[in-house]
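Notes to self after the Tuesday call (sharing in case useful).
The group wants a holo model before anyone commits to mutagenesis around the pocket. I volunteered. Ligand is adenosine-5'-triphosphate. Logging inputs and output together so the record is complete.
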Amino acid sequence: MLNIDNLHATAADTKILKGLNLSIGTGEVHAIMGPNGSGKSTLAHVLAGRDGYEVTDGSVTFLDSELLDMLPEERAWHGIFLGFQYPIEIPGVNNTYLLKAALNARQKFHGEPEIDAAQFLRVIKDKARLMQMEQSFLNRSVNEGFSGGEKKRNEIFQMAVLEPRLAILDETDSGLDIDALKIVAAGINALRSEDRSFLIVTHYQRLLDYIEPDVVHVLAGGQIIKSGDKSLALELEARGYDWVLEETSSA
Amino acid sequence: MKKNIQDRDTRSAAALTTIEAVFKKLQAEPAADIPAWLQPTREKAFANFRETGFPRAKDEDWKYTNLTSFAERSAAYLSNQPLAATNKTAGNFLTDLPETENEIRIVFVNGLHRPDLSTAIKPDSGLKLTPYSTADSSTSEEILHQQPADPNVLIALNTAFLADGLAVQVANDKKVETPIHVVFISDGQPCATQPRLSIDIGFNAHAFVIQHHISTGESLTNAVTSINCAEQSQLLFVRLQNESDESIHVANQVVRVATDSLFTSIGIDFGGQLARNDLAVDLCGEQARANLYGLFMINGQRHVDNHLQIDHHAAHTTSQENYRGILSDTARGVFNGKIIVHAGADGTDAQMSNRNLLLSERAEINTKPELEIYTDDIKCAHGATTGQLDMHAMFYLRARGIPEASARMMLVSAFAQEIIDHLRSATPALADYLNLQMNKQLPDIA
Ligand SMILES: Nc1ncnc2c1ncn2[C@@H]1O[C@H](COP(=O)(O)OP(=O)(O)OP(=O)(O)O)[C@@H](O)[C@H]1O
Ligand SMILES: [Mg+2]
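Result:
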């Protein structure tokens, strides 16, 4: 589904990604862990098309298209979803309105008719229930006045409504209390399917207790320096990153 | 530059001379449409106007707004004033209007009341609506009594050429729930419209008045509203200026708010080539409150100037101002908020906020708070911000699949909602109407 080949990216002339390779198959769940400042959010942003990053080398294909040639909205229409590490507040833009406009823009792009209003309302009510969000949140401005945990839940709620092909979740588990973590994990698990893939950035093994990843990667210094199965996350939790860094530098 | 200034003043003076000739002619042969009881007031006002003259280029209050085009268009139009509004198509302007439930709608075309387009005015205990053209002698006395005490030159000009207007009188203790929607239409004829509204809210009375301006072509409007809120009263006053993009629109509102009263004003300017609003509020009695909200949205070379002055005369008076501007292309906006806290107005609370969204690098806003404070015991805060669209919000929306152009429009509209939301609580229909009007213009602006 996603193929990242030798990706180099800079921001403000600082080299951040330095030859990153990563392949995610359809239906797979990949976790990325790594020290602060190693480039995890940068990778997520470059994949979603944020301004301010320059890709200096490498390529990314997504479902057989050149991802890096697309505008952010085109990437969304092709099925990319980014759950933000720091979801922002957008006063004056209604949550439900945003989702409806987003779905309709995607429908239009694919030459499909607008979504049925009643059907849409049913969907968002169901998904809000899944995320244990109060209905009143639906009619509030995007994230305005939401607590940190509510913002993260709202990200997963949006993902559930938009049903992307590839969800990139940047530290969705950070700042969640134990109950909220379970809700978020349940929300993600409910969306796991054969034709949907996940790239989950996290610092903590605990999320991976609920969402079993197929592959765990360590991102450090702008590269994936180690990959393994879910036991790698347990090992990182126990031993930290130093041993991996040493292993690669001596290799 | 200097030459330019002289040129402006010379042109304004020439316009004044033409206007004087027109006035003299009207004096000799008064038009049939003009109520006779207005005549002495008109003459006095003209003398006043003549003496003051149009603002000089150096006048601080008119630093950013050049009235020469207003003076010249006034001179041109007043000399061929077609008082009789013959245009039958004026009704077309009304088809777009918001469907506010059970509103009382009073329509003026080219300055004259049009009963055929208005809600029939029923005698109502407590609410009296009187077009000047139908005022009896006691009402005309009351109307004259409520003239702004110290008229500026534009108010004087309006009065000098006043032909018709509407008096809204709400009796003591009367709560009028129905919106009173006063629509002033300029139908495209070269007419110098001088709309006039006088609103008198009695003791412990409530009312909701919408002053709505619509026009087509190179229209010219010089509107005056005088408002009096008696003790313990509440008035929600909405001024909605949606004139054509070629119009020149100036408007004065002079407001007196008595003890324990609440005056709320929402001023919206979506139209106008050149628009200037002067809102002057006197908080005369203790605990009098004024909440003033404003929003404008302009593109091209259009110009909107909001001048506000709040005088806190009494103790424990409160004012709150929140004005927002949206500008693109080479549009120019002005916000001038003056707060005067007089001696003895202890415990005054005055808050002023002005926020502007510049959608192009060449758009310009001049914002200036002016505080004059003659007492110590006050709480005063003001803030002004000018910024562009939030790039983080843009990316968030686009990452969800909103196309760039739509995302821009969404954020511009969002910026306006804080002001429009004040209307929503009073009348959702009008808020929806405003959003509709805004959405029509957004593709050109965002
Ligand atoms: N726009 C930018 N301009 C300059 N430097 C940037 C920019 N964005 C990121 N960086 C730098 O790139 C490095 C990687 O940042 P990034 O946010 O990708 O790290 P991260 O792995 O997500 O860290 P964390 O675990 O703390 O979230 C950091 O040193 C950061 O300061
Ligand atoms: Mg990060």
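Two things stood out.
Residues 88 and 148 of chain A are 10 Å apart (CA to CA).
The mean pLDDT of chain A is 93.
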